[in-house]
Write a structure and sequence with these properties.
The protein has a single domain, classed as MetI-like (MetI-like fold), CATH 1.10.3720. The protein has eleven helices and no strands. The protein has helices spanning 5-16, 21-27, 41-71, 79-91, 94-105, 109-133, 137-145, 150-161, 163-180, 193-201, 205-235. Helix 3 crosses helix 6 (109-133), helix 3 (41-71) packs across helix 9 and helix 9 (163-180) runs antiparallel to helix 11.
């Protein structure tokens, strides 16, 4: 229940904020329009969550594939290069990635999705490599002794035993994406960064507070839900 509490708070905020104009007017009496109104908070939250979900899925597919490749005998030599490329990608500020992507992909969700996917790969990659490297040698020898091929051993032995660490990487990747996605509104993407960006540009602190509350609640909700999934997988590997 504790893990679901942030989700209940998020839902409560989505219900209450559209009717909180009086509260924000009392809090910020100098503002003529203290309640964000351009797009509904529910619509922004769903769009934000969809971007994060798609970007995390891409990051999981790429990170998992690279992690598996880097831990195979034929790919061990690629591990330092793969890690270096992923780390270098993390050193670029998200704004810089957007600035490069917008001329190529245009404004909207596409450049934001690219930035989120790039930033989400490293946690998944790192935890995939760590999890697969920690699989006990005895389990691998037992699988070989039972006549498992390399792909069957990977699917039925290695990945289930490494599922806990891999899920931890997925969880971190998703949480980072929730926060990073807010900058997407600066290039036309529909995210919870819209009230924050508009509030900063228009010197409207109330908008910033509303966007920040929802982003924080969404991040905690995603963390709680993925935390439950991680615990379940650790107790009952795939």
């Amino acid at each position: 229940m504790r893990a679901l509490a942030p989700l209940l708070i998020l839902i409560a905020l989505l219900v209450a904020l559209p009717h909180a104009g009086g509260l924000f007017h009392a809090w910020f009496p100098e503002l003529s329009h203290p309640l964000y109104w351009r797009t509904s908070f529910v619509e922004l939250t769903l769009a934000h969550a969809a971007l994060v979900g798609i970007a995390t899925l891409i990051a999981v597919i790429v990170g998992l594939a690279l992690g598996i490749l880097a831990t195979r005998e034929a790919g061990r030599s690629l591990l330092p290069t793969v890690r270096a490329v992923a780390v270098i990608g993390q050193t670029f500020p998200p704004v810089a990635v957007l600035a490069i992507a917008v001329p190529l992909l245009g404004f909207g969700a596409a450049p934001t999705l690219l930035a989120l996917s790039l930033y989400g790969v490293l946690p998944v990659l790192g935890q995939t490599v760590a999890g697969l490297d920690q699989v006990p040698a005895s389990a691998l020898h037992a699988a070989d002794g039972m006549g498992y091929g390399r792909w069957r051993r990977l699917w039925e032995v290695e990945l289930p035993l490494a599922a806990g660490p891999i899920m931890a990487g997925v969880r971190l990747s998703a949480i980072v994406s929730v926060g990073t996605a807010t900058i997407g509104s600066a290039v036309g993407a529909a995210t919870l960064g819209a009230p924050i960006v508009e509030g900063l540009v228009g010197n409207n602190t109330a908008y910033v507070v509303q966007g920040a509350l929802l982003v924080g609640a969404l991040a905690l909700s995603v963390d709680g839900l993925l935390g439950l999934a991680e615990k379940r997988i650790r107790r009952h590997p795939l």
